[in-house]
Amino acid sequence: MVQLASGAQVSGRLPSAKPALPWVTTAARVVLAAVLIVAGALKIGAPALSVQAVRAYQLLPESLAQVVGYGLPVVEIIAGLLLLVGLFTRVAAGVGGVLMVAFVIGIGSAWARGLRIDCGCFGGDGTLAAGQDPNYFWELVRDIGLLACAAWIVVKPVSRLSLDSALGFGGTREPVDEDGPDEGRDDRD
Amino acid sequence: MSKRTSEAAKARIAAQREALRKQDQRRRVTMIATIAVVVVVAAAFVVWSVRQGASEKVTGGLAAVTVQEDGTVVMAQPGVTTPVVDVYEDFQCPACKQFEETSGATLKNLAAEGKAKVAYHVITIFTQEPTKSNSLRAASAARCITDGRQWVAFHDKLYKNQPSETSSGFSVDQLISWGKEAGVTSSGFDDCVRKQGNVQAHQTYTQQVMSTQKLGGTPTIKINGKELDSTTAFVPSALRDAVINAAKS
């Protein structure tokens, strides 16, 4: 980090010298997974509320609001579970990242349009309780933080305690020679 | 000697290749199986979720419906006094429309089955325009109806035609024509809707309900005075269970 001038050389030998990085990815996985699973679990049992929360954003046509209302909690839970156990890590993190981008757009646009809604992130029908004010700023901060977790995992999908490495997915040992997501990790040898 | 060595080496390489190939194949099979498991789990979640959201159909007729003096509308079989399901709602509130679409039929069925006494309390929670006036016009018009069944039909019609929260709606002309479609026959209905003469009574009622019931918003559903979680109210099967259980205790 100190010598920027020789940065290229330094980063060239980094792979062998950063055993902590896979643990960072593991931590990012757990954080993103926990939020996704909790958010999905709080919504999936009452899909009518979930649909209503989507409608509250006044962004999607009715048919899409239905699909998102029912589908989103399932996608959140599946992506969360996959991240938790480290299975198809990169794809799951990619899905999580796309969701976060969508949430940031949704909340940002609700804020910009002056809507007064609850984000419905963790259940509810999107209406604020009496006397409650919108909390857009912190909702955005949270989702951008989670987006950063997702981005990190996509870039560095190899992590400790993951089924991907246990099952030999994701090419930690040998790269998959078709179009697997190995990202040239094989040029180590 | 050297020939044998090279042959042994070749064989070893071939065996290694074969082993690698096998490993690859195993991995592929594992991956396909894993994906299949994930898909099945996801499908199971979807099926369960859809069941949670599934509405009942109004099977039989309605229970007897009476419009009370203060504007409360009670739906129950004769003699059924408990459990009481109170519904606090606003014709303009989108979540109330969603509640009606999701769980409205369950309440009608429970009342018809003699398993509950349902009381509708129409109030106006909006304080800003255009939603406030929309809500007041609709509620005032509903108060022009004295026949219980017609009131319920009108009530359903209003939710079906609920205007957006950003536009002026529930116009007097619309309200009159929906009343006709709902089977309202009384001769004074048009005039009553046009004059909006019930706004005052409706606002008084709203204030009284708000101050005694401490509502956090609409819709609020109470069973024997106890507020229901929205995750119960918006899940028809859970709502039914909650009412049935309340009858037992």
TrEMBL record, chain A:
Pfam families: MauE. Residues 22-154 form the Methylamine utilisation protein MauE domain. Keywords: Membrane, Transmembrane, Transmembrane helix. It is a multi-pass membrane protein. It comes from the Bacteria. It is found in: Membrane. The chain crosses the membrane at residues 20-42, 63-85, 91-112. InterPro entries: Methylamine_util_MauE (IPR009908). Signal peptide: none annotated. This is Methylamine utilisation protein MauE domain-containing protein. It comes from Microbispora amethystogenes.
From TrEMBL, chain B:
Signal peptide: none annotated. The keyword Transmembrane applies. The keyword Hydrolase does not apply. InterPro entries: Thioredoxin-like_fold, Thioredoxin-like_sf. The chain crosses the membrane at residues 29-50. Keywords: Disulfide bond, Membrane, Oxidoreductase, Redox-active center, Signal, Transmembrane, Transmembrane helix. Residues 84-230 form the Thioredoxin-like fold domain. PANTHER family: DISULFIDE BOND FORMATION PROTEIN D, GLUTATHIONE S-TRANSFERASE KAPPA. Belongs to the thioredoxin family. DsbA subfamily. This is Membrane protein. It comes from Microbispora amethystogenes. The lineage of its organism: Bacteria, Bacillati, Actinomycetota, Actinomycetes, Streptosporangiales.
